[in-house]
Amino acid sequence: MDKVLFGDNQFFAVNHLSDEKSRAQAIRFKDDSAIIRVLDQAIEEGISTFMCTTHDRIANICEYMRNNPDKYRGFKIYPGMPYAHKYANAVTELGIIGTIKQYVPGNIFSTFAKGGMAYLSKDFLKLMEILIDAEMKMFKGISTPVIFIQNVIVDMILGLKAYDAFKAFDEYIRKKYNAEPGYITMNMPALLDALNSIGINNPIICTSINKIGFRMSGGREIYEKYLREKEFRPIAMQVLAAGALKPREAIEYLGNFPKIESVVFGASSKGHIRETKELIEKYL
Amino acid sequence: MLKAGIIGLGKMGLSHAAIVAPHRDVDLVAVCDTSSLILDGIKKFTGIKVYDDYRKMIDSETLDFVIVATPTKFHFPMVKFALEKGIHTFCEKPFSLSIKEGEEMVSLAERNNLVNQVGYHNHFIGTFRELRRLIKNGILGDLVHFTGEAYGPVVTKPKGGTWRSDPGEGGGCLFDYASHVINLIQEIIGRPVSAQGAQLKRIYSRDVEDAVYSLLKLESGLSGILSVNWSDETYRKMSTSITVIGKKGKIICDATELKIYLKEPDSTEKLDRGWTIKYITDLAIPVDFYLRGEEYSAQIDNFVHHVIERKPTEINTFRQALETDRVMEIIMTESKR
């Protein structure tokens, strides 16, 4: 994995510090061309991996990349699925079954010809595969060497101790997409223990790592212990703690943990992209 | 270890299950739902016992507490059944569709000294908690006006659907979205006692309102505005905010930040004149397990703590939630005038 991964929160009005800033971002990135412009600036700065959620608008970005193959040669995307709010808002309105009906492509009764929903209930893993394929459709023809499940799903499975779902995801991503599975989580120590317990070793885990312990469940100390002692491939996210930390002190802190392979960050200006990238390369 | 059961495995029930199961002081022994699809999934992937009848679950298991996360119209029989068996009860919001039934649940819980809590989770978000503290300390002086708002993209196209689009089951923007804001106003600023005008507007839904607008008057005589709309797709997710204006300044608070404007410095709070911004990064309540927000774990931590100590919680009691139900009734009555 590259040391520097370019994230997408800034494009989709995700700002953990201010609702006002997220609205400003939504306005700025209204057009796909604005997203592409910033992505191109990141590429000019030498970044070659874009880590993004499976938001509807990413499909347009992928389409643009497919249409401009020379420009994006060697460029990689690490998809994170699903775009959770799409499902969360749907579940509030339609319920869980209604949401499955809405998002499983085609008619669910024909997808599961043998008895429809009743058959489905016996085969959750098949359903998971169908949902993964649906989310992955937009990346056709684009290099996706690492594929992540988003934290809401990871942490839900983790909490329910439904670890077989991790195993199935892991196997399917390797087999079908010839890619490395990755896990985004707000509960890194517990997740690593869980994955190890089912024989998933040295996993790629993307998790909050910052010196003020923001969104590091269980506290900073246990995260630091795991970063020093355990075997896994960490990607640091929320390194600026939603903006509470200055880039230099934030990234200097990451330098204490040589195990960290990559840092994912989002930025909207060339200056910020360059500054953050240089800091990561200096301290990591 | 406390033994827990969950009734209802929709969005909130599953979320509670994922938070309760790894809790260091709790053993989640059983869950209950009517969907065989959900129960099959739980049975297949987790070691948790499943029931399709809550009575059977409560009678067969020795539970210290239950979480009731079913559609609102089912709260009363389920909560009552649990309380009568001496089980501490956490109930999802809104509390009840009928004031009479709500009163019965309150008195049953209080009479039996059972810990009771309702899922108004915003009180476990650091920014709203800090707002409450500042307002109670009188930092803004005499209050002049407030605005309570929530916007989000739940229903953005015309279509019907589940119990949330059925007014008889507790669906609609008033019960689902506005209840959170009313509860925040009630616990942070003061109890609303009347509505001077209320509009329940349908935008896309056929049978329920998608927006709630009202001018509320509080016990103290203070009045302010409630403005809630769940059909606003300019928001990525539910965004709730409270603005309070006083003679000494103003505070705008949401889940991410607290913006304080003071006309004069406040030495006890160490706040300057003019704007001060406090961020959630400094105010978040630390939790052992995170799912969708610290507040969901923090509210369970609070409930579990009080069950262990066997003493009533002061945050989000049934009684407080019943007050919110009363305000919703006031708004419904006023909207029909």
Q: What structural keywords apply?
A:
A: 284 residues, alpha/beta, TIM Barrel, 13 helices, B: alpha/beta, Rossmann fold, Dihydrodipicolinate Reductase, domain 2, eight-stranded mixed sheet, six-stranded parallel sheet, 34% helix, 26% strand
How is this structure best described in words?
The complex is a heterodimer of chains A (284) and B (337). Chain A has 284 residues and is an alpha/beta fold. In chain A, 51% of the residues lie in helices and 13% in strands. In chain A, strand 2, helix 3 (56-67) and strand 3 form a beta-alpha-beta unit. Chain A starts with a strand and ends with a helix. The mean pLDDT of chain A is 89. With 337 residues, chain B is α/β, with parallel strands linked by helices. Chain B has ten helices and 14 strands. Chain B has helices spanning 11-20, 36-45, 54-60, 75-84, 99-111, 126-136, 173-188, 280-283, 294-309, 318-335, and strands at residues 2-7, 26-32, 49-51, 65-68, 88-91, 116-118, 143-151, 192-201, 211-218, 223-229, 239-246, 249-254, 257-262, 274-279. The longest helix of chain B is centred in the C-terminal third of the chain and has 18 residues, at 318-335. The radius of gyration of chain B is 20 Å and the shape is globular. The termini of chain B are far apart. Classes of the chains: A alpha/beta (284), B alpha/beta (337).
